[in-house]
């Protein structure tokens, strides 16, 4: 059994709208605030109000900025803020994924290197709070898989930091590549932040999938359009399949990108793989091969969703010497994954727990960086920490301890 989130962006999407929908669906605002404070301490305050949009109630979450300094920021600065904050790993991963997609879109639009991108609207405190807050809300609701419907982009013009622009904004249009979209209304209905969050969270564009509905929420935008509710809706549901073991694991549509490369300096490969994973790849790996004339080479393989295929393909072509990429669709059957933390000799060790759909634990694997740190601090061999961490995780499972985290990777 998995908890699935479906995003209805048929009226558009913005960061604050999606955050409001998740809070309306049950994500505790005080817990979301605590997560945002980890990145922006004493900087913003989240407040919730119920509003009416076209006659329908919705939740509006506003970000009150408590400081005057809101400089334009480079992507590398924002990346550092999120990477070094005390966040649960799934929250950090989702927030970084959304900002990575934004940075890549802005870099392409302005013709600059990704690390030199300066964010304007999306670099302000409230937009950082929206992205981190949405990542936190998804985590707090226990979401394991996410999909979304077509996104309404709007039409006409909108005023931005770069002046008056046609809708959709260039960055929004770049982020929408490969996704089903509509115009459906006047003005800017989808912002770059909202579009980036949809692409970072959702693995597929689809109508609402068959689920057992467990909750829902509506998040309001600022404007109230007559005859059309300016809201994002989210629907939470349980995806249940029959059987047990591998037969009960739901299939997920994925893509594999591949390239055979024989002339790249091998010292560059770790950075290439890290860039692909940071940009949203579900996995990336190298396979040694022998090419024509007996030349040693590698096959670079990248597993990803359809939503991430275009930006990952560009990374392969720009970060390696490959002249092309071949692609084929695959099905991935993945166990449910979550994180819990155990204590070994007074030191915290995170455990990645893999579960079947009936909740049965299949694997419990300690995070090795935590094992290494605990072993060094306690002055004992790493193998001892590994053994004791697994034992502590099994003891927690026997006592019915609940999982403390989730991941959608």
General description of the model:
This protein is an alpha+beta fold. The protein has three domains: 238 residues, no CATH class; 83 residues, Transcriptional regulatory protein pf0864 domain like (Alpha-Beta Plaits, 2-Layer Sandwich); 63 residues, Roll (Ubiquitin-like (UB roll)), CATH 3.10.20.300. Helices cover 33% and strands 32% of the residues. The protein contains eleven helices and 21 strands. Strands 6-1-14-13 form a four-stranded mixed β-sheet. Strands 16-17-15-18 form a four-stranded antiparallel β-sheet. It has a three-stranded antiparallel β-sheet with strand order 19-20-21. A hairpin with a 2-residue loop joins strand 9 and strand 10. Helix 1 packs across helix 7 and helix 3 runs antiparallel to helix 4. The chain is globular, with a radius of gyration of 22 Å. It starts with a strand and ends in an 11-residue tail after the last helix.
């Amino acid at each position: 059994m998995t908890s699935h989130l479906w995003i209805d962006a048929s009226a558009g999407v913005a960061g604050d709208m999606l955050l409001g929908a998740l809070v309306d669906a049950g994500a505790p605002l005080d817990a979301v605030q605590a997560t945002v404070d980890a990145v922006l301490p004493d900087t913003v305050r989240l407040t919730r109000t119920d509003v009416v949009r076209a006659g329908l109630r919705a939740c509006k979450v506003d970000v009150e900025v408590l400081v005057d300094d809101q400089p334009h920021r480079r992507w590398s600065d924002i990346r550092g803020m999120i990477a070094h904050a005390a966040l649960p790993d799934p929250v950090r991963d989702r927030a970084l994924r959304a900002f990575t997609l934004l940075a890549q879109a802005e870099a392409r639009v302005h013709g600059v290197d990704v690390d030199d991108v300066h964010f304007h609207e999306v670099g302000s405190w409230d937009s950082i709070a929206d992205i981190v807050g949405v990542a936190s809300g998804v985590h707090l609701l226990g979401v394991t898989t996410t999909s979304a419907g077509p996104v309404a982009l709007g039409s006409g013009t909108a005023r931005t930091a770069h002046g008056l622009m046609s809708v959709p904004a260039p960055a929004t249009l770049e982020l929408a590549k490969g996704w089903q979209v509509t115009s459906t209304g006047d003005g800017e209905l989808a912002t770059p932040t909202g579009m980036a969050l949809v692409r970072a969270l959702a693995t597929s564009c689809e109508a609402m999938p068959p689920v057992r509905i467990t909750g829902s929420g509506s998040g309001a935008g600022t404007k109230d359009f007559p005859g059309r509710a300016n809201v994002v809706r989210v629907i939470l549901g349980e995806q249940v399949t029959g059987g047990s073991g591998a037969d009960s694991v739901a299939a997920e549509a994925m893509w594999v990108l591949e390239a055979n490369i024989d002339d790249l300096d091998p010292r560059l490969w770790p950075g290439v793989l890290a860039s692909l994973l940071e940009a949203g790849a579900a996995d990336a790996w190298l396979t040694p091969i022998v090419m024509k004339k007996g030349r040693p080479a590698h096959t670079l393989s990248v597993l990803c969703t359809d939503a991430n295929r275009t930006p990952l393909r560009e990374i392969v072509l720009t970060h390696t010497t490959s002249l092309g990429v071949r692609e084929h669709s695959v099905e991935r059957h993945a166990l449910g994954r979550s994180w819990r933390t155990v204590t070994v000799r007074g030191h915290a060790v995170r455990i990645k727990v893999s579960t079947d759909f009936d909740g049965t634990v299949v694997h419990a694997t300690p995070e090795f960086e935590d094992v290494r740190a605990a072993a060094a601090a306690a002055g004992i061999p790493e193998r001892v920490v590994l053994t004791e961490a697994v034992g502590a995780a099994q003891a927690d499972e026997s006592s019915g301890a609940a999982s403390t985290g989730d991941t959608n990777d």
